[in-house]
């Protein structure tokens, strides 16, 4: 039987079946377990979406209340993990901290029996933010934060711990919460596929998550929102934005935050996060210049290159206006996508088969072996 040859990056190859999300069906659209992303972003909390992705259906009020209590109970940072976090240098990238947290928790609280997947998922979703911020505050100022802020949402807990405030602007909390929903799941994205490959070997759940975090770290995947903010932040006027774009055009460099492997036109998540970023720009602590520059770049990219922004582009300005430092952008992605990864790893294990594709060989033809004493540049 002939084998179908894959395009570069496995583009267009169906690598398996999944009931978790539809991405770009017909070139557009995003649904989690059948629910449109617009409905979920505007009408649900991240905790509801967490339940949906891990359990397969939206929760009742009682189920949601129970989940929120469970998240609160699972926030505590183990003492041994705190000791390790206190030794890590402040120059560490937050993604390295996230990978380390997953690995250490996998040692301290190992997967020892079937059926622990949901428990591990909630533990990591609850713990990732507090652990990251414990390291951040201790390494920068020596402060040992109290990670538990009560039965706050994942979004509110993160923002209170980062800003060390007891009250956060509701719009900032909502924006952060919506971003978590938008980043939660995206079918066989690189990190999800890598994680599924790992657990397909019958490796443990934590190994699948550390695989995913390492894959997400790259700027062509999760790191794109950081890369977008890095070029947006110095641009303080439309003329500077034009200079930046013209220079990138001339050098034929990628403009991070634009284009998508699946969506042929607009990423359906982009207008949602743009809406919240625009709302933030009109507040006292907002940055209207950043939004004006972003919108100008978007306009030119669509008109001149026919390339649309993806979720990462306006997420950069949204997170910036929430007061979150740029190096933490991708780490927040981890907290969110932990829900999608968890759903996929549960699904992979439910009908597992080792993932082992083949490559198209492009090396030399079969050669005659040459003993070492007869080898030289002429006959090799």
Description:
- This is Citrate synthase.
- InterPro entries: 2-MeCitrate/Citrate_synth_II, Citrate_synthase, Citrate_synthase_AS, Citrate_synthase_bac-typ.
- One of its GO terms (biological process) is carbohydrate metabolic process.
- One of its GO terms (cellular component) is mitochondrial matrix.
- The protein is 55% helix and 2% strand.
- The chain has helices at residues 37-43, 46-55, 61-73, 79-85, 94-108, 117-141, 154-163, 170-183, 190-200, 205-216, 224-232, 238-251, 270-281, 288-305, 311-321, 329-350; strands spanning 21-23, 30-32, 35-36.
- The chain has a 3-stranded antiparallel β-sheet with strand order 1-2-3.
- It is globular, with a radius of gyration of 22 Å.
- The model has no long low-confidence stretch (mean pLDDT 93).
Number of helices: 16
**What's the number of extended β-strand segments?**
3
Helix coverage percent? 55-70%
Mean pLDDT: 93
Provide a concise account of the structure shown.
The protein is mainly α and 380 residues long. It contains 16 helices and three strands.
